[in-house]
Specification:
The protein is α+β, with helices and mostly antiparallel strands.
């Protein structure tokens, strides 16, 4: 090649190279410009170059105190449709989808076609840019076979989404205590709510880059964060004790013809809740109470017909959703009656105003207070020692002794036992109970409270306070903090001292004689039960059933009592064994039936006492406690 030709080729090569460099520079410049400042039309056409994928966290599991599974989470699939991209006309697709789901085509068609027509109307009214509904949930969680059938259809606008499914192994026994999780997998009620912060995990995520077709190309370095599962929580409840409590409560409610019942079992040394059960049953013979409309004219006394009224209906109870039921062990109060006497008895003994061997004139079961209030005893005796006052449940003895204490001292003492304040066990909706304010405390209140009236308590509060009698050694007379979590090793759960250990021991020994009477009653009159292997102590109570607040828009009939005449709430609070108590429990029987009342077998010793006795026996055997039966338990006399 000549020199001139070589120079010409060189210049051409340089020109082409320069042109290529310029083209590439322009392309890269345009790319840089698009990345830094994208026009609105292009944004609308392309969308974001980045996407985020979220890996949902798995909610933590719940286990009972022995590690048995109570609640766990798995992921399932449910169907939703995009009405905008669903096949049109939808007829054939609806039929195929309904067959895959095993549902009537009419019901599927209604869910699909309705949103499609609504979207069409929106576009007709507002143009193509009008907002349209793009998400319509079609099913709940499907089984794996149904989900696979839907997936294989490949229908346009039909999608499967992964959702968490909470499963319970003991839902029937623990429904109202476990509670429920909502659509967002957050705890709404019960233990699911109480331990929400522990059970909730942390979702993972990653950021990725899309291609022009909006398909993922690669994950951007450093953006991947793995999900963290929620913690496993071991609660204090024991599934075996829960079933024992529920079985015996069911038996007791049925045998008493009652409208419902509650039971709570705890470890008094740690404050751990071992079992909590609540039953409400529908009674065909119970009538609605005849409330008056709030605007009804009339002020003279009205005679309310003598009927059995529905006083323990399932308030907030949805039979289809037992987890949504009220947990009446913490939410609903009751008047304890004589089962409250041990607490007042201990406060008076601790104060030194009364001695154990002091004798009270109990007037053969009848006495009138200085302000002319009549007080009666079920056990009619001319006199009783202070210890016998508790054993025989003497109202007269309790009233005379409490009159020595100032109003403020008794009120403060009752409050120091935890009544009138929440236990803060962690369950939502817990009631504080009712203790009369100092300004309203009167001589009538002083008398009433001494034998468990004019005060309202929850079963949780009663077990907490009664644990002071159940603790021994240095802990005797102290009250634990109640917990639904397993106690820390060596933890005592001490909250406050209620009274001395000596007072706790004397009260426990006196109440052992009360429990022995229940055992004799069960042997003689309730099926001949005997042969108990464990000693027990406790106290029964019987009180009138309160009417409760009127429904919205109604009021109590003029002159009507605040109680349901002839209807009662009975209870029995107990601990066992006597020497070294391992459990504390309370049983409440709501509204024993008319037959029991007619036979005068509706009292706490007849209805709640036997339930407590059976629960204590079975629970202690399950826990492996050494039997401690004295000869007196086998006495037929």
């Amino acid at each position: 090649m000549s020199g001139a030709g070589g120079v010409r080729v060189g210049w051409i090569g340089l020109a082409v190279s320069g042109l290529c460099v310029a083209v590439f520079a322009a392309v890269f410049g345009r790319v840089a410009m698009l990345q830094s400042s994208v026009s609105e039309p292009l944004v609308a056409a392309v969308g974001s170059r980045h996407g985020v994928v979220v890996t949902p966290a798995v909610r933590g599991t719940l286990h009972d105190r022995r590690g048995r599974l109570i609640a766990s989470t798995r992921f399932g699939s449910r169907v939703f449709i995009d009405p905008v991209s669903f096949e049109s006309p939808p007829g054939e697709a609806v039929v195929r989808l309904a067959e895959a789901l095993g549902l009537p085509a009419s019901s599927v068609g209604e869910r699909v076609i309705g949103p499609m027509l609504a979207n069409a109307a929106a576009v007709a009214a507002g143009g193509a840019d009008a907002p349209q509904r793009r998400y319509v949930r079609l099913t709940g969680v499907l089984d794996d076979l149904a989900a696979e059938r839907v997936r294989r259809l490949g229908l346009a606008g039909v999608h499967l989404e992964r959702v968490p499914v909470r499963e319970y192994t003991a839902h029937e026994d623990l429904a109202s205590l476990i509670g429920k999780v909502g659509a967002s997998d957050t705890g709404l009620l019960g233990m699911e709510h109480a331990f929400e912060s522990r059970l909730t995990g942390l979702s993972g995520s990653a950021r990725y880059v899309r291609d022009a077709g909006r398909r993922p190309m690669w994950i951007e370095p450093g953006t991947w964060r793995a999900s963290e599962h929620g913690a496993s929580v071991r609660v204090s409840v024991d599934l075996a004790v829960q079933r024992i409590a529920l079985e015996e409560l069911q038996r007791g409610v049925l045998e008493s013809g009652a409208a419902g019942g509650r039971v709570l079992v705890a470890d008094p040394s740690t404050g751990e809740i071992l079992a909590m059960a609540d039953l409400v049953r529908e009674l065909p013979d119970a009538e609605p109470y005849p409330w008056w409309p709030a605007d009804r004219v009339g002020s003279g006394p009205v005679e309310v017909p003598a009927r059995r009224y529905a006083a323990v209906t399932g308030r907030g109870l949805n039979p289809a959703e037992p987890a949504m039921a009220r947990n009446r062990c913490v939410e609903d109060v009751y008047e304890p009656g004589s089962s409250f006497k041990p607490f007042v008895w201990a406060l008076l003994t601790e104060s030194g105003l009364v001695t154990l061997d002091e004798t009270f004139d109990t007037g053969q079961g009848f006495w009138v207070t200085p302000y002319r209030r009549i007080i009666r005893d079920v056990t009619a005796r001319p006199e009783m020692t202070w210890r016998e006052v508790l054993i025989n449940s003497s109202n007269i003895g309790m009233v005379k002794a409490s009159s020595r204490m100032s109003f403020d001292a008794l009120r403060v003492g009752v409050r120091s036992l935890g009544f009138g304040s929440r236990t803060r066990v962690g369950l939502p909706g817990e009631a504080a109970g009712l203790v009369t304010d100092a300004a309203d405390w009167s001589k009538y209140t002083q008398t009433s409270v001494s034998f468990g009236h004019e005060i309202a308590v929850t079963p949780m509060q009663v077990v907490r306070a009664f644990s002071a009698f159940c603790r021994t050694g240095d802990l005797a007379g102290t009250i634990p903090d109640m917990t639904l979590l397993g106690a820390a090793p060596g933890g005592s759960g001490v909250s406050r001292r209620a009274f001395s250990g000596e007072v706790a021991r004397e009260g426990r020994l006196a109440m052992a004689e009360v429990a022995a009477r229940v055992e004799r009653l069960m042997h003689r009159h309730l099926g001949g039960e005997r042969g108990w292997r464990y000693t027990m102590f406790g106290k029964s109570g019987t009180a009138d059933l309160p009417l409760g607040p009127a429904p919205e828009g109604y009021r109590r009939p003029p002159g009507a009592s605040g109680y349901l005449d002839g209807q009662y709430v009975t209870s029995f609070v107990a601990g066992a064994p006597v020497a070294e108590p391992r459990i504390a429990l309370v049983v409440v029987i709501d509204d024993p039936g008319p037959e029991r009342i007619a036979d005068e077998r509706h009292y706490g010793s007849w209805t709640a006492g036997p339930v407590a006795r059976r629960i204590a026996e079975r629970t202690l055997a399950y826990l492996g406690v050494e039997p401690d039966v004295p000869p007196a338990v086998e006495d037929d006399g």
